[in-house]
Amino acid sequence: MLTTLIYRSQMHLTQETDLILLVEKANAENAARGITGILLLKDNVYLQILEGDECVLEQLFSTIKQDDRHHQVVELMRDYAPRRRFENVGMMFFDLNKLQTADVPDKGSPA
């Protein structure tokens, strides 16, 4: 059953290249598992929305909770979904530390 899982964690990576490699590896592995979603970073706090098969997400989340790079992992929401919200994006990453307010589209303005 298609499931959406949202969690937050703190991760301490020493270099930006470590983060880029982590995102690239996760992208490839998630694509192979049929997992889509987005990953947001603000300071050292991550918020991730994952969507995919319930059993596959459970295995992935268990791995994330056991990963020494993640601290204070908190599951915020888990629910069944009638369809994917991020079907065509794979796993998008947004570093909110680098994103300017002007770059964020206003919901009321045309994109």
UniProtKB/TrEMBL annotation:
Q: Name one GO molecular function term.
A: blue light photoreceptor activity
- Segments forming domain BLUF: 2-92
Task: List the InterPro entries.
Answer: Acylphosphatase-like_dom_sf (IPR036046), BLUF_domain (IPR007024)
Please state what the protein is called.
Diguanylate phosphodiesterase
Q: Which organism's genome codes for this protein?
A: Klebsiella michiganensis
